[in-house]
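Submission sheet (multi-component)
Chains listed below:
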Amino acid sequence: MNSEFTKLFELIISASLINNFVFTRFLGLCIFFGVSKKMETAVGMSITFTAVMMISAALSWVVYSYLMVPLEITFLEIIVFIGIIAGLVQASDTIMRKVSPGLYYKLGIYLALISTNCIILAVPLVSAGEKYTFIQSIAFGFGSGLGFAIALIIMASIREKLELAEVPAAFKGLPMAFVITGLIALAFTGFSGLITL
Amino acid sequence: MLNVSKIKKICVIASALTLTLFAAAFAGVGGGVEAKESVDLMQLAKWTLVFLAGLGTVFGAGLAIAAKRFAVQIDPRVEKVKDVLAHAHCGACGYAGCEQYAEAVVNNPDVSPNLCIPAGAKGAEAVALITGKKAEVREPEFARIMCQGSVSKSRKKFIYEGVIDCRAAVLAGGGDKSCAYGCLGYGTCSRVCPFGAITMSTDGLPVVDITKCTGCRKCEQACPKKVIEVLPASKMVLVACHSRDKGGDTKKNCDLGCIGCGMCVKVCPFDAPSVQNNFSRIDVNKCRVCGLCVAKCPTKAIADHLPVRTKAFITDKCIGCQICTKVCPVDAPFGEQKKKHEIAQAKCIGCGICTAKCPTQAIDGTFNAQEVFAAAAAKKAKQAASPAA
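Outcome: structure written.
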């Protein structure tokens, strides 16, 4: 039992820091640069992202291990996971609109952006490839969401300060953001020796 | 409906996938299936189809049920209203965003359709048409910069080398300008403007492009010195200074500051300016944009945004009474007594005083000419009526 918890903790730390999707796998950069301009949107996006990741990881684990593995059609995983995520996002969009309109106004705009995002797709794909258990898949989804949230919040706080800095004209905007991302990624390589899985 | 299209989509994807699979199998490629001696193609294709169709059906049905069960009744007019709004999310209407305003204007009969300032009169008309309300024409408003103390015209009390932003500069002892009420010139307003209407001049003052300005008041809120005021477009003569310093101090700090001398109060034919707290302020409700104060202001603190003011000319009704030569503040009319006078176009500022004073309504061309003629005609008609009665 104890070792099980240790494994989950390691999984979360690994997904959020060591193998951070943005800084070490360079996934989800479009959203990363898109919504990291303001802290408020960054936080909203992180919350939505983590929630969707966990639910989609759980749902696709069920479909993958109870339907696709017995039927021996695991080669369909990409297309099936895309379908699952798109359906899930659409459903949560509809349900959220009815159940809590306040939350919908706050986070609804991000939901549409999420449906075909590469990180969200990467989570079930990786957990299928690594043959995680159900709980581990959810932990992996949570860790990845946490990692994305850390990345977004770090970036948003830097970019808010950057607005006031004197950046050379050629580097203004996106080029500077890429330079900063590279530097943070460099810093994140420092986590690589944290846990040996 | 979305769900039907989703099912259709999944069916299309499934059939496309099956085709690829067949092609791949015939070409001798395993299609990513884990290494096996042989692949039972028919079996595989069958299960693939069943699985995808099943998944598609489950999701389609799930979404359909969700859409029915959690349906939110949205007035279709809300969407239509949303389409005609400016989508600047500027909050000028008083609502959090365009969506909230669209909802309010459709559902609440008291919300007027002309609140979206960026969408302008056209937008207001469109909203009124959709919601069945009456659009009142709302005068456009523009941001006006109430300071002329550019870098070359004003003094600084210290050298500021911090972050180039007014909100940061103001934290350092109220900014580097000697005048505590003037524009700091670090361009915060130009950066917050969602429409790119404000640019910084080379002399360090913001310039408002009125073709782009929508009067959303973002700059007014952002300016730490409250130098920007959003005022009706037609009011183009403004005292561009907020300095509450005594006249002498203002003069020391800035070449173009209002010293509160009261000259504009004396010359104004409409009682629009008034001096309070050592600076003059023009009451926009009284101002008729004649431009007389602009010409008379000793420090040139009054800004005139009207590019060309129509000038006066004398018609054949002139009887040569010379009243116009006496009332003119700039000595533009000339001519001998009992002969038709002329107005020196170079001198005339179009203030309309002579038009108002001429006993025979012989001076035309100024902004108030139509009004003066109408008033005279009405008076004549009244006089003609009263002796008869």
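Remark: The radius of gyration of chain B is 34 Å.
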